[in-house]
Amino acid sequence: MSIYTLRHFNVPGRAEPCKAILDYTGAKWTLESPQWPQEKAKQPVGKLPVLVETNKDGTRFILSDSLAIEQYLVCKHNLCVPEQDRQMVARQAELRNQLNDLFQMTQLIVHVNEPTTRNSFIQLFMTLAKDVVTYQEKWLKENGSTGHYFGNKTTYVDLALIGTMCALRATLKDMPEMLEPFNKKNAPMMNNIIATMEKDAKLSKYVSNCNPAGDTDAWRALTLNYDTAGPAYNSECETTRVAPQLKAIVGDKIGYAKRQRALTLIYEHTAAKTTEGPSWMPAKLSVECEDRIYRESSPGSYHGKLSVCLKNLKKDD
């Protein structure tokens, strides 16, 4: 079995789909972050990412360019559409290249400081994003809304999507409005693919280190006054836009301490039976469950609803 080294900067970027593919295929690999620009001259054409494959006999195969690396890995592990179907091969390349165009555009935005030029790139990105989402949603509907781009199994573009969304969310973390075209309302079927990928045990490690759906922000937005010592805190799922916290919501009707105890009880049962998905999933489910109980409670009914919830959780254990 080959051993891989992926050279790239230790930040989410154009190598994210490569990481997702390596994790999904169960490859033995490590990330190596060269000193930059000191080691630039040592890389093929002075660029990253670079894949170094060490074979059983000690020989090495070195490949540069993110798309070339992706295509090599997915073909090696039979994650491409059948090569004899040339139209589907072309469609696969088209869909993957559209996602790559989106990431490429973000690099123009973040590396340009002149306001007028930057705003022009932002407008171009928003137009492109909407067009890509519209096109890909149409294709996914034609595919039967299966939670995959081709048929009903994981292939190259599924993994490219989850990697690209991780890279986009990291790159645009200070401009969340630019991610609007990709939300669940505007891109329901693309988000369905992400949800499918998040549930796949083969991607649990990758998803726990990334945030393809932005869900950590969504459920943390429900909470206030968090504590890094809380029952479900996990530093791996933090983003720069959300402080490292996890506590129950502070409400007017119910005391904070009572709600925190409720969250702890819900979390204990949820964590015990949630065995798949990202490491922060039990925390997310617990916070959403407690929030739903709180919102649906009239004065004096909170504890009764909580008791019913806990009883049902115990029944399922």
What does this protein structure show overall?
The chain has 317 residues and is of the alpha+beta class. The chain contains eleven helices and four strands; from the N terminus they run E-H-E-E-E-H-H-H-H-H-H-H-H-H-H. The chain has helices at 16-24, 66-76, 86-110, 115-142, 156-171, 188-199, 204-208, 215-220, 256-273, 281-296, 302-316; strands at residues 3-7, 28-32, 50-54, 60-64. Strands 2-1-3-4 form a four-stranded mixed beta sheet, with helices on one face. Helix 10 packs antiparallel against helix 11 (302-316). Residues 215-255 have low confidence and may be disordered.
Beta content: 5-15%
Global structural class: alpha+beta
How much is the average pLDDT?
82
Q: Major β-sheet, in short?
A: 4 strands, mixed
Shape: globular
Provide the low-confidence segments as ranges: 215-255
Task: Quickly list its features.
globular; 6% strand; single chain; alpha+beta; 51% helix; 317 residues; 4 strands
In a few lines, what is going on in this structure?
51% of the residues lie in helices and 6% in strands.
Protein topology:
Blueprint: E1 3-7, H1 16-24, E2 28-32, E3 50-54, E4 60-64, H2 66-76, H3 86-110, H4 115-142, H5 156-171, H6 188-199, H7 204-208, H8 215-220, H9 256-273, H10 281-296, H11 302-316
Parallel strand pairs: 1-2
Antiparallel strand pairs: 1-3, 3-4
Helix pairs in contact: 1-2, 1-5, 3-4, 3-5, 5-6, 9-10, 9-11, 10-11
